[in-house]
Amino acid sequence: MERILHWLFNLQAEWPFKLRLRPWPAALGVLFLACVFSALAAVTVTYQTRVQYAELQRLEQERNQLQTEWGQLLLEEGAWSTPARIEQMATDQLGMRIPDVTDVEVIRP
């Protein structure tokens, strides 16, 4: 510590101007750096917020599309299990028909 003080006193004597060490330039530097870092943080947070909002909108759109598709699947499921649909498929694909009265044969035990 004594060497530093000795160097400072010699430096003041040798230079054509007085070397004044004041604390305010360092404080201004710290404040400037704090301001720059806070500005960068604000820009970064704003960007991240916009990215996340865009992702949220994309996910909501996908959810709405999937809900629409789910509703359509439920309607199709209901249509496939109706008795009229089953009767039509049995008639068209399997050649089945409702028997006439003359074709009915009653068997008794």
From TrEMBL:
Key words of the record: Cell cycle, Cell division, Cell inner membrane, Cell membrane, Coiled coil, Membrane, Transmembrane, Transmembrane helix
Coiled coil: 49-76
Any Pfam family the entry gives: FtsL
GO BP: cell division
Main location: membrane
Topological type in the membrane: Single-pass type II membrane protein
Cellular localization per UniProt: Cell inner membrane; Cell membrane
InterPro entries xrefs: Cell_div_FtsL (IPR011922)
Keyword Zinc carried by entry: no
Function, in words: Essential cell division protein. May link together the upstream cell division proteins, which are predominantly cytoplasmic, with the downstream cell division proteins, which are predominantly periplasmic.
NCBIfam families (alphabetical): ftsL_broad (TIGR02209)
Similarity comment: Belongs to the FtsL family.
Subunit annotation: Part of a complex composed of FtsB, FtsL and FtsQ.
HAMAP family given in the database record: FtsL
Full protein name: Cell division protein FtsL
Organism of origin: Halomonas dongshanensis
Gene from which this protein is expressed: ftsL
